Amino acid sequence: MTLTTLAVLVPLLPFLGAVAGLLLGRTAPGFVRPLAVLPTLLAFALAVTVAVRQGTGPATDAGTRLTPTGSVPVDLAVHLDGFSVLIAVLVTLVASCVQIYSTGYLRDDPRYSSYAALVSLFTAAMLLVVYSGDLMVLLVGWEVMGICSYFLVGHYWETPEARAASLKAFLVTKLGDVPFLIGIFALGADAGTFRINGVLTAAASGQLHHPTLIALLLLGGVAGKSAQFPLHTWLPDAMAGPTPVSALIHAATMVAAGIYFVARLLPVFELSSAALAVLAAMAAVTMIGSALSALAQDDIKRVLAYSTIGQLGYMAGALAVGNRSAAVFHLLTHGAFKALLFLAAGVVIHAAGTNSLATMSRMRDLRSRVPDAMWTMAVALAALAALPPFSGFFSKESVLRAAEYAAEGHQAHVPSAVGWTVLVAGLLTALLTAAYATRLFLLAGSPPQTRRARQQRDGETSVPAPTDNHFRTPVVMNAVLWLLAIPALALGVTAGKLPQWFDGTSLAPTLATSVLGVGLALVGVLVTYAAWRHTETRANRVPIGAVVAPDSVEPAATEAAAIAAHPQVYGDIAGAPDPADPGRLLLGPLHRYAVHGFGLDVLYSKAFVRPVLAAAGLVRFLDREVVETYVRTAGGVPRLLGLLVRRAQTGNVQTYLSVLLGGSVVLAVLAVLVASGA
């Protein structure tokens, strides 16, 4: 079987699994789980085979004319290189883990069949984006992902939070897709083809006449899909969906698509220094703003959502300084540890019955209930904080190295100011990332003796053992967690070999970036720990008077049950204020702004939502009070005349003759008057 055929089968298998799952979900429910898991696992095996066979050799490009469209044809094309085959392995691995994990996580969900089918379709759409060699075919996968995200984020449609989040995610990403679509058309018109290799050839030969305009239009779609400032506000709210969906969106699909798109077409963006500057500024604001917001959130999933936004900012920053190898390397490592973080958080949510870190911090035995989730979460958080020797250290340092290299003026087509912007923002974000990762672990998995002291302070003298109704993690869920812990821990050791798969750019960090990056991360860890100990001591002297964990916390049968039991965790401030939260001490007066995402949603509501609603109200008023009034009047006059004429039709001949005679007399009088006047 040829390499191209194998590549075509990789997205085709999940697609067929999705179709079969939708058709057989009601009639043959016993086939739903095999149809969800097996096609995705087989796609993973084929993706690995494609990656091994493609290797570090020249890119494979094959296609056939899909349909004649005039001057710029559309081809059904496949483009395979080191970037695409490794991203496809990541997508299929994470999707397989999510599908296996979901068999336990959503085992009692009545809508599991439609959920599993949509996850498979989501996976197929992302694989189409990764393997596609034609921009128009890529656009199909791009849009299908947006539709799937709408349904998956709104899976718990009974809750108003999920309904609002799904609608917001769809509208915001579609807002970015409008300039993205225009940019693709403009790029195809300039290059004379939608084939990616043809576009890159045109960029290399200087045939693109409007590179800045095209790049800025494309960045609109990238900002929406990859949740970059200012179109990032949909991603934290999307946490109202099931946790496995969050893992899939954040680690391997949807948000990764924008970064991958820029990496694939980076030579086009490098033709415009203005576009690179905009990308760098967007990445810098995204990194710092999201890290500050993550430090203030109480909902564990919102913390992880803001962390995803920040890590995507790192990738965008690497692309802004012209190093797609560092961007894709961080995309790979982030996919591993972020999927692990969300899936481990899902276990914790089930066991705790809430998403609130404030509530979790008061639970006496949470860590002992779910030890596998806590240990693997610790590994993933260490990778997120970029502590050596975890994978996040190597990939984050490669980004900082690329920024340092550009700041020194060594990167062609990249202004040194762009490099300095990314470098400074990346170093500050390294400090903040370590801080919020440490805070999350301390609040969700603080030592039992500390919790015992807090509970005894509140009048409790003993810590009861877990009861029989406590949540027991299914074996498949724990197995998935430990499987993902392997790349989260060890993927960084591949840094020396990955340049052979990419464009040959070295990924080894320099001594300066290593010392600064690790030093700032350690400062973030130590300062957060000190703040936590200080707030713990202060909380021991001041009664909490808020949420205290009950003697035995009921586990949630489904995440929807946890949401229903604790609806406040999806509000602006999740749960009750916790005096032992180190984030409040670290942020100080910034906390009130950071917890609300610095008011961007409020700003957008005033600037866009309210004017649109007001305009819609005006249109409604004009339609009902003006247009309908005119229509009713226009129809009422003929009806009135018809009524008068109908009353005149009495059927009496004498009446008709009398009216005829009277009319004749009137006409005669009028004729005389007119004649006399003349």
Could you please describe the fold and organization of this structure?
By secondary structure, this protein is mainly α. Among the domains are: 272-595, no CATH class; 599-677. 71% of the residues lie in helices and 2% in strands. The protein has helices at 3-24, 32-54, 82-105, 112-131, 135-153, 160-191, 196-204, 211-225, 234-237, 243-251, 255-264, 266-269, 273-294, 300-320, 324-352, 357-360, 366-369, 371-384, 391-407, 416-444, 448-457, 475-490, 498-501, 511-541, 559-565, 582-587, 591-594, 600-648, 653-677; strands at residues 60-67, 74-80. A hairpin with a 6-residue loop joins strand 1 and strand 2. It is globular, with a radius of gyration of 31 Å. The model is unreliable at 448-452, 457-469, 541-557 and 566-576 (pLDDT under 50). It comes from Streptantibioticus parmotrematis. The chain crosses the membrane at residues 6-24, 36-56, 76-100, 112-131, 137-157, 169-188, 208-224, 245-263, 275-296, 303-321, 327-352, 373-394, 417-442, 475-495, 507-532, 656-675. Residues 448-468 are annotated as: Disordered. It is found in: Endomembrane system; Membrane. It is a multi-pass membrane protein.
